[in-house]
Amino acid sequence: MPLTPEVVTADRAVVARLIDLEVSFAPDAEPWFTIDGIGNPQQIGSDASGGAFVLLPSQNVLYVSSEGRAGIIAGTFEAFVQLVVARPYWLDILKFSGGGDLQEMRRAADALEATLEDEDEINEAREEIRKSLDLGEADDPVGALYEAIAASDAIVRATDGSPFTTLFNRFSIDNNPMLRNAAA
C-alpha cells in the first residue's frame, strides 16, 4: 500500500514525531499562492517557517516557501516523508547549495548533521517514524532532492502574479563559520 497523507495523519504518534522534525499536516486556511495549470492545489501541510507542502496531481510534492521560493522536492509523498525523516534540515541544505551544486549540498548535509543539537531526539524520531510507517531509508536523500528541484517545472505565483524563484540558494557552508568548522 502506498504511503499517503491520510495514512500518516491517521497515526498520532507519527504526526507528533514529524512535528518534532518541523512538519505539520495542517494546511493553511487561506491560499497565498497559485500554481499555473492547477486550479485547487492540495496543500497537505506546512513547516515551522511558514512554507507550504502541496501534493500535485502528478503525485510530486511541491514546497512553497514564505520567502518567495518554490520547487518540487520529491517525486512521491513517500519520498517526501523519507527526505524529511533523513534530512529534517533539508531546507538549509538548499540554502547552502551554492546555487544548486550537488557537491555543495552534500557538504552542507554533512555539516548540518554534525551540528544537530538534539541528535538523540531526532534519531529517536527517525527510528519511530520509519518503524510506524514501515518506511525504508532513502538511498540518497540529498541526490533525490537535487534531482527533484533541478527537474521542477511547476510555476508558482504570489497573489500579485509574480513568479517564485528556485529553492536553490547561492550560499555555501563556507559563508557560515559554524558550518564551515563542522565540515572541517
**Strand order within the widest sheet?**
1-3-4-5-6
Number of helices: 8
Helix content: 40-55%
Sketch the major β-sheet: 5 strands, antiparallel
Which percent range describes the beta-strand content?
Answer: 5-15%
* Protein structure class: alpha+beta
Low-confidence stretches: none
Distance N to C terminus: 43 Å
Mean pLDDT: 93
How many distinct beta strands?
7
Provide the gyration radius in Å. Answer: 16 Å
Q: Helix-strand pattern, N to C?
A: HHEEEEEEHHHHHEH
Shape: globular
Plain-language structure description:
With 184 residues, the chain is α+β, with helices and mostly antiparallel strands. The protein has eight helices and seven strands. It has helices spanning 5-9, 12-20, 77-86, 90-95, 102-114, 119-133, 141-150, 177-183; strands at 23-24, 33-35, 42-47, 52-55, 61-64, 70-74, 156-158. The strands form two sheets. Strands 1-3-4-5-6 form a five-stranded antiparallel beta sheet. Strands 2-7 form a two-stranded antiparallel sheet. Strand 3 and strand 4 form a beta hairpin. Helix 5 packs across helix 8. The protein is globular, with a radius of gyration of 16 Å. It starts with a helix and ends with a helix. The mean pLDDT is 93.
Short description:
The chain has about 180 residues and is α+β, with helices and mostly antiparallel strands. The chain has helices spanning about 5-10, 10-20, 75-85, 90-95, 100-115, 120-135, 140-150, 175-184; strands at about 25, 35, 40-45, 50-55, 60-65, 70-75, 155-160.
